[in-house]
TrEMBL record, chain A:
This is Phosphate transport system permease protein. It comes from Adlercreutzia faecimuris. Keywords: Cell membrane, Membrane, Phosphate transport, Transmembrane, Transmembrane helix, Transport. The gene is pstC. PROSITE patterns: ABC_TM1. Residues 68-276 form the ABC transmembrane type-1 domain.
From TrEMBL, chain B:
Belongs to the binding-protein-dependent transport system permease family. CysTW subfamily. Part of the binding-protein-dependent transport system for phosphate; probably responsible for the translocation of the substrate across the membrane. It holds the Pfam family BPD_transp_1. NCBIfam families: 3a0107s02c (TIGR00974). It comes from Adlercreutzia faecimuris. Keywords: Cell membrane, Membrane, Transmembrane, Transmembrane helix, Transport. It is a multi-pass membrane protein. Signal peptide: none annotated. This is Phosphate transport system permease protein PstA. It is found in: Cell membrane. Residues 58-268 form the ABC transmembrane type-1 domain. Its main location: membrane.
Length: 285, 281, 277
């Protein structure tokens, strides 16, 4: 009797300790990032750091504005490329494909989701960059390639989340539209899709998070010049790339400035997570 | 109206066709270019700049993933058990765990890399090492394990548990004997997902595990081998591709990576099917 | 695909139906009719050789125990069964003497034959947009026209006074009875000729049910109504004609009073007296 109560108590303590690990991890991540990054930001000066247009650590210039803009450009480009195609593909899988077609395509989407980003980057480097170089001599690794590649990489995220949202729309909405004489396309696009709107929004936000956070694939195809790109064919460096490219050899304030870049990225992601939760909550109503 | 419908229909088909084309292009690109370069010399135990062997990276991947999962799976499953089976619904602690778990899931891997470097490599003084890399990956995949296990446990009908309680079993026994076994396929699916992320990860490992192409000396040096730097297949591919000197070997590495992903997807699909069979039966 | 195959089988049946109709119907001309209608889901035969007429501007009630095929028949009248995989229809469904299954445009058929479902199914959008959905589908674009249609439809569904001040509110915020009357308004907005009601009051409370029954009695002046109900008192209260179904066949059909007070078939007598099963 006593030993079983002891066992139950121990189990409860162990399980709750395991649950606490998530909380501890987030606290530690915040702590280490902020402790190492914020002093650098203060030393450089917050406006100089966030809005400075020149990143030249050798000369003590630490402006990450080009990288902030770069991350935004690349992400917007990825959304323009990947979201329409992804949503349409999700609509196809949910409402147009026959059972056999869906059985064929859905595992393919899962495979796309599983392919490591470095393989995407390799594909971009070997196939896409030379194509751009062929079309526009003198150019190659660029904002354009990065946006196209990231657009491809967010496809599976958009498709999976959007399809789940579409599949969850009650059948009675679709039937109701048909019973009014609407054809299949109108019933889907004017009733089913709006009914799934908050889920579709969540898909897009999740994809934005992925695109902003992607590192390796972008490094391999973006050119990485720490300058605000003037055209689609110019090189671009993202926040993630800035960290990954220089962390290997950085020291002192340079190193702390890179951690501070991580802080900016982290805050950006937190904002997106908050937005995502708001979108989900609205959908849960 | 009719014309608009036709346009919409073709757009939908185009979206699906584009996705299929991308899939075929990438897998085709890797397989066609890579399979011819899968030579025996790529699988020699020691890496030299002559053989460019991927064997150390392959072993490194296995060790890294195994270590990371060894840490993440017990903790993740335990956390999920607490959330589903023990915690009073809606308590503040549960809300905090849920919120942090969601936050962890959204954090980009490069941030995990930074964190791992600052904590494990520098603060704890482990240096670039197998252990630091595995710990970083463990934190990264923890929310994946927690979420999938939670979902699997919540899908277990309450009747299973009530049956156990009705026989006078304690909560621990009910969880171990009734809930966990029927959630096992779902948990397996989560573990496979986590494994996939470990295998494909680069950004979190560059500054925690480093890029040394050698098999950690666990056999010779024992636990001290945990502090050797090593690279995984994905890191190997990144290094080869960015150096640009061994593109053929990079193709071959990509094939091995892709094959691993395909096998993992197959296992995950099997696990899903098992869940469905159970739900029907 | 299944639909194309069955068209050929039905061609021969056309033309027989009006003759059959004349023999069984009283004065009103038949708005819709089904002749030798059969329906199978895979191996299961849901309807067998059903012959019925639905006279213009009358309410026809379809009654019978659950699973007897009455809802299936209703869903043949606007071809909602087309959505069901493995469903095969034989025989013919006639609207104004034209074979509904040979209409090139099923959407036009569904515009002319409206439907109200068992569960109220307003779309998750505003009340106005719900009612305007059908007219917009069929090409009405001008704001003034839409306003006029929305008001008329809501008036016809006897719910205008309750909703006129909240047309922009989400329809999902309405009570179940209001939602169902909104769905009726939505169906009326495309000016259908026939209205199908599939146990449309079974999910509602008695007060809402009474309102909808009253509404159906008014709608009869302009529309042909076919309603499925499991409530025999409801059939008695609102319908002009009743058809009693059992295991996919029509046992008896005729004026409601006759079916309820002088049933010719013993099974009908048992069912309407509540002695069935």
């Amino acid at each position: 009797m006593n030993s079983s109560a002891l066992r139950e108590g121990t189990a409860r303590v162990l399980f709750s300790a395991a649950a606490a690990v998530s909380v501890v991890a987030v606290v530690l991540i915040c702590l280490f990032l902020f402790v190492n990054g914020v002093p650098a930001m203060a030393e450089i000066g917050v406006p100089e750091f966030l809005l400075g247009a020149i990143w030249r650590p050798a000369n003590g210039l630490y402006g990450i504005f080009p990288m902030i803009v770069g991350s935004i450009y690349v992400t917007v480009g990825a959304v323009i490329v990947g979201v329409p195609a992804g949503l349409l593909c999700a609509i196809f899988l949910s409402r147009f494909a026959g059972a056999r077609m869906a059985m064929l395509l859905a595992p393919g989407v899962e495979l796309l989701a599983g392919i490591p980003s470095v393989v995407y980057g390799f594909f971009g480097l070997i196939i896409m960059v030379p194509i751009i170089r062929g079309l526009a001599p003198g150019h190659g690794p660029s904002l354009l390639v990065a946006a196209l590649l990231l657009g491809i990489m967010i496809l599976p995220t958009v498709i999976t989340v959007a399809r789940n949202a579409l599949d969850a729309v009650p059948r009675r909405y679709y039937e109701g539209a048909l019973a009014l004489g609407a054809d299949h396309e109108r019933a889907v696009f004017c009733v089913v899709v709006p009914a799934a709107a908050s889920g579709l929004l969540a898909a897009v936000v999740l994809a934005v998070g992925r695109a902003i956070g992607e590192t390796m694939a972008v490094i391999m195809v973006a050119g990485n010049q720490p300058v605000i790109p003037g055209s689609l064919l110019d090189g671009v460096r993202t926040l993630t790339a800035n960290i990954a490219l220089e962390m290997g050899y950085a020291a002192g304030l340079h190193r702390e400035a890179l951690v501070a870049t991580g802080v900016v990225l982290f805050v950006l992601i937190l904002l997106i997570t908050l937005f995502l939760n708001a979108a989900r909550k609205r959908g849960g109503r | 109206m009719r014309r608009l419908s036709r346009v919409l229909r073709w757009l939908v088909y185009a979206g699906a066709a584009l996705t299929a084309a991308v899939l075929l292009a990438i897998t085709g690109f890797v397989l066609i270019n890579g399979i011819p370069h899968l030579t025996p010399s790529l699988f020699e135990w020691t890496y030299t700049s002559d053989n460019v062997s991927l064997m150390p990276a392959l072993v490194g991947t296995l060790l890294m993933a195994a270590l990371a999962l060894l840490m993440a799976v017990p903790v993740g499953v335990g956390a999920a058990i607490y959330l589903v089976e023990y915690a009073p619904r809606g308590s503040r602690f549960v809300r905090a765990v849920r919120m942090t778990s969601e936050t962890l899931q959204g954090i980009p891997s490069i941030i995990y890399g930074l964190f791992g470097m600052l904590l494990f490599v520098t603060a704890l003084g482990w240096g670039l090492s197998l252990l630091a890399g595995a710990c970083t990956l463990a934190v990264m995949v923890l929310p994946v394990v927690v979420r999938t296990t939670e979902e699997a446990l919540m899908a277990v009908p309450d009747g299973y548990r009530e049956g156990g309680f009705a026989l006078g079993a304690g909560r621990l026994r009910v969880v171990a004997r009734c809930a966990l076994p029927s959630a096992a396929p779902g948990i397996l699916g989560g573990v496979v997902l986590a494994l996939g992320r470990c295998v494909g990860e680069v950004a979190a490992l560059l500054f925690t595990a480093g890029t040394v192409a050698q098999v950690p000396d666990l056999l010779g040096a024992g636990p001290a081998g945990l502090f050797d730097s090593c690279r995984t297949l994905a890191v190997h591919l990144y290094v080869l591709a960015s150096e640009g000197l061994h593109i053929d070997e990079a193709y071959a590495t990509a094939v091995v990576l892709l094959a691993v992903v395909m096998v993992l997807n197959g296992v995950a699909a099997l696990a899903t099917r098992m869940m469905e069979v159970r739900d029907r039966g | 695909m299944a639909e194309m195959a069955s068209v050929a089988e039905r061609v021969t049946e056309e033309g027989k139906a009006p003759a059959m109709a004349a023999s069984t119907v009283d004065l009103a001309p038949a708005k819709m009719a089904v002749a030798h209608l059969g329906l199978r889901y895979g191996d299961f035969s849901a309807l067998r050789d059903v012959n019925l007429v639905f006279p213009e501007r009358q309410v026809t009630a379809l009654i019978g125990p659950s699973g007897c095929g009455k809802s299936t028949l209703l869903r043949c009248l606007n071809r909602m069964n087309d959505l069901v995989a493995g469903c095969r229809v034989t025989g013919s469904v006639l609207l104004d003497g034209q074979d509904a299954y040979r209409f090139v445009d099923v959407n036009d058929l569904r515009r002319r034959v409206g439907m109200v479902f068992q569960q109220p199914n307003p779309f998750p959008m505003s009340i106005y947009d719900n009612v305007a959905f059908g007219p917009r589908t069929h090409g009405v674009k001008r704001r003034a026209d839409l306003d006029e249609i929305v008001e008329r439809s809501l008036r016809d569904a006897a719910i205008w006074d309750e909703l006129k001040d909240r047309l922009r509110k989400n329809a999902l915020g309405l009570s179940g009875g209001q939602q169902q009357r909104l769905c009726i308004a939505r169906a009326l907005a495309v000016r259908p000729e026939v209205l199908l009601m599939d146990e449309s009051t079974s999910a509602l409370d008695p007060i809402s049910t009474a309102k909808i029954e009253e509404l159906v009695r008014q709608l009869r002046e302009r529309y042909t109504v076919v309603m499925v109900t499991h409530n025999m008192l409801q059939a008695l209260r609102v319908s002009d004609r009743t058809a009693f179904f059992l295991m996919g066949e029509v046992v008896e059909a005729g004026p409601t009073d006759d079916v309820f007070t002088h049933p010719r078939d013993g099974r009908t007598a048992d069912y309407v007296a509540g002695r069935f099963g």
